Amino acid sequence: MTTMTKLPYELFIGLRYTRAKRRNHFISFISLTSMLGIALGVAALITVLSVMNGFQIELRTRILGVASHVQISGTGDVLADWQAVAELAASNPRVVAAAPYVNVQGMLTFDGAVRGAVIRGILPEREDRVAEIGRHMKSGTLAALKPGEFGIVLGSELARALAVMAGDKLTLIAPQGQVTPAGIVPRLKQFRVVGIFEMGMFEYDSGLALIHLEDAQKLYRMEDRVSGVRLKLHDLFESRQVAMALLPKLGPDVYISDWTRSHANFFRAVQMEKNVMFIILLLIVAVAAFNIVSTLVMAVTDKQPDIAILRTLGAAPSGIMAIFIVQGALIGVIGTLMGVGGGVLLALNIDVVVPFMESLFNVHFLAKDVYYISELPSDLQGGDVIAIAAISFVLSLLATLYPSWRASRVNPAEALRYE
Q: DSSP characters for 240-275?
């Protein structure tokens, strides 16, 4: 006895029906269309979710390259004895580094051009431990910011708007004025551009300027005080827990914020878009899966004599139902496996496929002069692949129930009347 004949007859006949050449070629065509539709939908869903994951990571990396995982600030953006706060924060084992900062507003002017900006005073050696601005310098370095030399590092868009280059001298106007016999006069200080950075986020590239912490304290008369302390963690997803753990130790006059609060809108928007895209593309899989209904309905009609013979030989209605469930489920499984294979390959090679299509059709999907992210990022996650494959299989299985139930209701006498 062969291995095949040892299988339950429902599974054996269901597999035979799937592999056999049909008298009605239209049924075969519908089966193939359903299979390819499921494969296309699954592949598209895996690829799009991988790209959305990539965008999410890219966005998070760029925002947190300038912002901090956790930010500790004082009342009115003034924090005294920042060294003690930094030491206390650094004592937490989940904190990698701490850096003080001064965050103020200012106006930059050069050769008639005027731009408002956020002026951030930093200690370059500490800043490199909590942020990635130093890795995105187009010219110069953060180390060029020396106390008392009044150097300044600008975002690329801000430098372009002011038409300045490294080595040029511009004027920083502080909004806090000084009282003179002629009235209140804003404080002015000349700074030399020692570097230009480009983070790829317009908010930062067009509105952020860095100066040395001591220069900021002198210009804005903050003495030894700062605006706050920024922390970098081993795991950025523990920022909420770290903030809650540090809050009782720092006292009532200290405010703690983490990146999930300060930039929540960005990440919620991306997550919402990912969820919507998942639902929309899942409809493609659903439509393809329910094409199995029409395939099996026609197959049941085509196989009515066979069903009648099986019933007269003693096959139970549940056995007939199982035969067509096997046939429809096999279409869904093959389509799902094809889609998973194609989707995984495409997601892993998106950096090769997209440039090839751009060169083939002479287009650029993400133009560098419009988008900061000029290449499609991709992050394939196993959980997404498993979830998509499982949902696709369940939809395919659900699509087999009605036609299989109809097959189990076939009356043998009626089916064989004209045979």
A: HHHHHHHHHHH-TTEEEEEHHHHTHHHHHHHHHHHH
Locate tokens 């199982």: which residue?
322
Lowest mean pLDDT among 131-140, 152-161, 355-364: 355-364
- Beta strands at 208-212 and 113-122: parallel, antiparallel or unpaired: parallel
Q: Which two tokens stand for residue 172?
A: 């920083």
For residue 25, give Cα distances in angstroms to 21, 265, 298, 381, 400: 8, 54, 11, 39, 20
pLDDT at 27: 58
- pLDDT at residue 194 in the model: 94
Q: Which residue has the higher pLDDT, 260 or 333?
A: 333
DSSP assignment string, 84-110: HHHHHHHTSTTEEEEEEEEEEEEEEEE
Please check whether residue 99 is in contact with residue 126, taking contact to mean a CB–CB distance below 8 angstroms.
yes
Tokens standing for residue 336: 């799902």
Q: What is the CA radius of gyration of the chain?
A: 33
Instruction: Give the pairing type, strands 208-212 and 151-155.
Output: antiparallel
Residue showing tokens 């990698």 = 96
Phi, psi dihedrals of residue 38, rounded to the nearest 5°:
-65, -45
